[in-house]
Task: inverse folding
């Protein structure tokens, strides 16, 4: 079993990450990762993901330029995960669906990977007929690098705050769950679910406060203990509750059932 622990604030926000392996219930650090540029305020390790056995590892660095993500592949001869690809806006897709893409925002802030390492989800903000935030799907090549394959989901930027704040694939890789802890339309938070069909993640289902989750009123005692034990909850605090309740953290069981 493997675990990655990162510290994007390490060394004046240069960032770092450590890969741990568990043996006989003891976790031991076995590899250290760091930014190839090693510059301050680049936040290497804001997010990361890996395949089973840590054969493929991806680490993001949103503060470098418009954002980077780095791909590491296990060298079975040496047992070391080697950097095989650095991806930024310079080699990101320039058109999606026949529409030109301009990366004038954050690229590669959040990442998620299927257990087999075949599909990689990367969150980016860009202009494509308007300001957008979307999840770009990459597919693994034979050499362990990744190539952009398709767009899984996309929203207007002013209605997609922190899309992908947390992302998880189901154990079988057939569903991608993407958190959106705050939405301009509802100020409530949402989770978006894309399903893999014929090699493409799509058919997005949205779960959020309106219609999908329990409705609360300002005087609902259910908030006692959650918001400072108040008997009445101002709207702003009620919205904050939903941002925490729906769309901050996702846990996915192997059968695809999900908690968020």
Result:
């Amino acid at each position: 079993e493997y675990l990655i622990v990162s510290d994007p604030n390490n060394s004046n926000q240069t960032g770092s990450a450590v890969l741990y392996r568990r043996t006989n219930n003891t976790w031991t650090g076995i590899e250290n990762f760091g930014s190839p540029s090693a510059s301050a305020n680049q936040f290497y390790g804001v997010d990361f993901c890996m395949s089973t056995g840590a054969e493929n590892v991806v680490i993001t660095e949103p503060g470098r330029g418009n954002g980077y993500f780095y791909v590491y592949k296990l060298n079975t001869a040496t047992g070391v995960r080697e950097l095989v690809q650095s991806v930024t806006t310079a080699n990101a897709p320039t058109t999606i669906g026949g529409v030109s893409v301009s990366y004038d925002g954050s690229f590669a802030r959040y990442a998620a990977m299927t257990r087999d390492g075949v599909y990689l989800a990367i969150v980016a903000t860009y202009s494509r007929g308007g300001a957008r935030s979307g999840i770009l799907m990459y597919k693994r090549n034979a050499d362990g690098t990744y190539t952009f394959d398709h767009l899984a989901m996309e929203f207007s930027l002013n209605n997609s705050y922190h899309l992908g704040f947390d992302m998880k694939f189901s154990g079988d890789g057939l569903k991608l769950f993407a958190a959106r802890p705050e939405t301009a339309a509802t100020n409530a938070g949402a989770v978006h679910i894309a399903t893999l069909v014929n090699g493409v993640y799509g058919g997005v289902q949205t779960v959020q406060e309106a219609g999908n989750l329990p409705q609360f009123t300002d005087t609902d005692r259910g908030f006692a203990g959650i918001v400072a034990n108040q008997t009445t909850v101002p709207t702003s605090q009620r919205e904050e509750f939903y941002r925490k309740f729906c769309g901050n953290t996702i846990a996915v069981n192997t059968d695809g059932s999900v908690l968020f």
Notes: DSSP finds three helices and 19 strands in the chain. The mean pLDDT is 80. Residues 127 and 229 are 43 Å apart (CA to CA). The radius of gyration is 19 Å.
